[in-house]
Amino acid sequence: MGEEQSQSYDYIVVGAGSAGAAVASRLSEDARNRVLLLEAGPASHPWARIPIGYAKLLTNPAANWLYSSEPEPNTNGRRLPVPRGRIVGGSSSINGLAFVRGQAQDFDTWAQMGNRGWSYRDVLPFFKRMESYQGGGDDTYRGRDGPLRITNPTPSDPLLKAIIEAAGQVGIRHNPDYNGDRQDGIAMSQASIYKGRRMSTAYCYLEAIGKRSNLVIETGALTRGVVLDGKRCTGVRYAVGERERVAQAREVIVSAGSINSPQLLELSGIGQAQRLKDLGIEVRHALPGVGENLRDHYAPRTRWSVAAKGMTFNDRGRGLGLVNQAFRYMMAQDSMLAMVAAPLRAFVFSRDGLDSPDLLLGWVPMLTEPGPKGPKLSLQSGMTCYAHPMRPESKGSIHITSADPRQAPAINFNFLSAPSDAALTVRAIRIAQSIMYSPAMVPMQVSEIAPGKARATDDEIIDWVKQAAETTYHPVGTCKMGSDAMAVVDERLRVRGIEGLRVADASIMPTLTSGNTNAPSIMIGEKAADMVLKDAMALA
Predict the structure, then answer these.
(1) CA terminus-to-terminus distance, the chain
(2) Nearest to 329, CA basis, from 52, 115, 67
(3) Which of helix, strand or coil describes residue 540?
(4) Is residue 361 helix, strand or coil?
(5) Angle at 404 between CA 222 and CA 478, to 5 degrees
(6) Which of 87, 339, 381, 472 has the CB geometry, 3.0–4.6 Å to 41, for a possible disulfide?
(7) Could you tell me if 272 and 380 are in contact, meaning their C-beta atoms sit under 8 angstroms apart?
C-alpha cells in the first residue's frame, strides 16, 4: 500500500456521524481553523433522505457496518444485530429518528460521578443550541433556531389515540413534551423529521452550511490509527482505497462511535496492555478502561394482533394502500413513509416512590418479520410494543480481535447479568400488558401473540426475553468519561495520559441516558466543539 505525503490541519475529526458532524461543523465556523473530517462510508445514500429508509438501511452494507454481538447465554446463544451507520451522518442517517434527550437525573448523575460541567444545567444550553423546535413548550427548555429541526406530531391516528387513553386508565398521564421539565408519561414521539425529510447531522450540520474552504471532508476513508509522538497525538493514518495517507493536526477528535472509537484506540496501541501484546500491537499507552463499560437497552418486542379493520400499517401499507401512502408522502409528507420508527412512547415508573421514570415502552403500529433485505410487513395485522429498563446495570465490552482495522471487534453485551435488569424487564412487560388489556383497547380487538398468556411467571417471561429480545441500537460507554481507574477520557473529553487527543461520541457516556441516544450524542458533539475552542483560546 503506497503512502502519500502528509497534510496539516488544525483539527482532525474521525467519524462524520451524529457527534462528529456537529464537531466538524462548529470547529469550522471560524475560517481560521482548518478542519479535516474523515468518514469510512459514502457521502450519502438514496434511502437516507426518506424517514422510512431506516427499514432499507438496517441490513444494507452500503451504509451500515452490520456488526453483530457474540453469542451469550442470556441471548440463548444468538448473535444480535448491531447496526451502525457507515455513512456521512453516521447512525443519524439510518436510525429510527426518535428524538429523546433523556432526563435531568441522567446528566446530574454524570456530574455527581466527578464529571464537572456535565450536569443537566450545564448540558441544557447545548441541547437548546442544536435544535429548532416549533412544537410549543417552554423556552426554558426548548431551542428555536438551531440547525436540527425537531417535530412533535399530534395524536390523530385512532389506534395510537386509543393507546394513550388506555395508558391513562392505568395511571400513566399524557405528557405533551417529554423533553421539557418532566419526562414521565405517554406521548407521540418527537422526531428528527421535517417536511418528510430525515434531519440527519449530514443534512443539518454539513449539507446546510454549504462548502467551506476550511473544511475538508474525505469519504471512503478508513482510519487505521492515530499517530503518537511519545504521549502526544500528532495526527492520524488512514486509507482511501489502496493509498495510505497521513494527516497532521494540533488536535484529533475521535467521533467514531461506541464500536469504532475503542477499536481505533486499541489499534493505535492505547488500551489493555496484555490484550494488545497478544495481538502483536505495540503498547503506546496502557489504559484499562478502553472497550469496557458497554451498555445498551435489551428490549423484548411484545406482539399483538389487531382485528379491527384498517387500524395498522399491515392493512394500510400493502397493495393499493402502499400506493396511497406513497402518494400522500409526495403530496404532503404525511404517511407511513415519513413516520418515526416507534411513533408512540411512554416513560413510566416501575414502582411508587421513584423520583423519575425508569422504564420505557414504545409502540410500532405494525407487525414485521425478517426479510432478505431487511424487515418486511407481516401478512397478519397487528402491532409491537417494546418494553425495557432505561438505565440497565449490566455491562459488557468491545475489543478488537485482530490488528487489521477491517476486522470487526468482538461485542459482548453481557445482558441481564445484573439481577435488577431482569426484574425491571419483567415489570416493563407487565405494564405494557396492562395497557393493552385496558378498556380503551377493546374496540381495537387486540389479542396477545407474544409473550402470550401461557407465559405467566417471571421465569417464563425471562425465558421468552432470552429467546426473543434484541437491542434498541443504543450502545454507549466504551470510552467512558470519569476520574476513576477505568475512565478513558476526563471531563473535557481528553484521553487520559495523551495530549492532543479527545473522544466525543456516545462512547464517553458513563451510564445510559433514559431513552434513545441520538440526541445526547449530538449534544456531546456540540459540547466537545465548544470545549476544544475554549481550550484553544486559553492557550493562545
Answers:
(1) 39
(2) 52
(3) coil
(4) strand
(5) 75
(6) 87
(7) no
Q: Give the type of residue at 439.
A: P
Beta bridge partners of 348: 359
- Residue 174 CB burial class (10 angstroms; 0-12, 13-18, ≥19): middle
CB atoms inside a 10 Å sphere around CB 291: 31
Catalytic residue among 45, 388, 399, 474: 474
CA 235 distance to own-chain centroid:
27
Q: Which residue has the cell 466538524?
A: 24
Distance CA 200, CA 206 (A): 9
From 133-142, 354-363, 420-429, the region with the lowest mean pLDDT: 133-142
Q: Has 388 been annotated as catalytic? A: no
Which pLDDT tens digit goes with each residue over 180-202?
999 999 999 999 999 999 999 99
Q: Which fold has domain 1-149+198-268+476-540?
A: FAD/NAD(P)-binding domain (3.50.50)
Angle at 101 between CA 290 and CA 58, to 5 degrees: 70
DSSP-derived 3-state class of residue 532? helix
| Sequence ranges of the domains in the chain | 1-149+198-268+476-540
AA identity, residue 260? N
Place of cell 448540558: 123
**CA proximity to 243, closest of 455, 1, 41:** 1
- Cell numbers at residue 198, please? 430525515
pLDDT digits (tens, 9 = 90+) for 409-456: 999 999 999 999 999 999 999 999 999 999 999 999 999 999 999 999
| Alpha carbon distance 236, 268 (integer Å) | 10
Coil vs helix vs strand at 300: coil
Q: Angle CA(345)–CA(367)–CA(67) in degrees, nearest 5? A: 80
Q: What is d(CA 18, CA 52) in angstroms, rounded to the nearest whole number? A: 18
Ramachandran class of 75: left when φ > 0, alpha when ψ lies in -120 to 50, beta otherwise = alpha
**DSSP helix/strand/coil, 174:** strand
By C-alpha distance, which of 259, 221, 251, 223 is closest to 235?
Answer: 251
